[in-house]
Amino acid sequence: MDVYSFKNISKYKLIKYFNIICIFLFLTQANSQDVQTSDDSKLSYENVLLGPGDKINITYMDVGRQGIPVERTDLFTIRPDGTIFHELLGVINLEGLSISESEDLLTKKLSKYFNKPTAAISIIEKTLNKVLLYGEVPRIGIISIKSNTTVAELIIQNGGTTPDADISKIAISKRNGLTTTFNMERYLYTNDPANNIILEDGDKVIVPRISTLEKYSKLSENYILQYGNVIEITINELSLMETKPAQPETYIIDREGNIFHRLFGLVHLGGVTVVKSQDILIKMAKRYFREPFITIDVIKLSSRSVFAFGEVKRGGIYPIEGNIRLAEFLATIGGFTPDADLKKIIITRREGKTVVFNMEKYLFNRVDKKNIYLEDGDRIIVQNKNRGFIYRLVYKIQPLTTPMTLITSIIMIYMTFK
Q: Rounded to an integer, what distance in angstroms lies between the CA atom of residue 102 and that of residue 93?
């Protein structure tokens, strides 16, 4: 089996296990972060850029009083503006320069005073580099890191990633505008270090969110559908897939585990795997297609839903996201029929509470007190405006019709056998 084959391993599980390891390492790191190791002083500063706060030694050959060459070493702390003041060379800006670049700059400036001068710089104390860590990580913010810290080390030392992270597409944005992508998933399985770069001051590391479609459609045919899942069903005629591909249709699985499909009617998919659900729909589709090809994609794991009935153009069950008010929702589903009673729209809530909303007052007088935020399970009933007195009377006495019918029947039997 290829080392990089993930057919039998869910990406979701990989991230889960990875995060457990990261949290453990993070706690270990946190307990020992104040302990200096003997290797710290041996770190190579070859690729490190100088910046404010860094303490450096500058060594160069000077000429003594009697013309004898003398080696001089001076200690400098780079000022907040990125400069130092050298008694011979004046103000020198070293911010953003590497050790070799700084040495070249000093050598050039010293050449005004000496023949074939040499300059050497050593870092005595390096301020911590700061990088931005953002995205699907438990610790978002500006993180101080030691020199020579890699992308993988940064993420592991700061608690790993969230379960929704796409660790195969971690982006590193550099100060010069270049962006590199690091595949940490490949790195964990194959130890491939490609783009596990050493971070520099000012770098941005962004861990993106993995799409639900990628997480559950391709890698999880055995995912079991359940209440609240929002799914896309695409039905193609196999022979026409290349030339006339069908568009997906969105459905939400209700509390009973059903969807109401426009062709097949009520279909029970709750508790059934994605691949089994496709087989169920293929059997149904054979009544309409010669050679049906069906795909099901889970586009949302859970969703709130509301029900719209009556004089609306598109009644049915609708998933809702975020905070959405009643009027906004009714507008998004296509509005009303010409017979809709806009003065008395009824919303019944799960706990039995009823809200009456006057759309006309909302539109013309901007009265929006009853333009409520919708909740999961709300039922919106738009009545017919042509209901007259008799209709309303029947509606009022409807609860009494059963006992009245029973009493009338008893009287008729009594009169018949008297």
A: 9
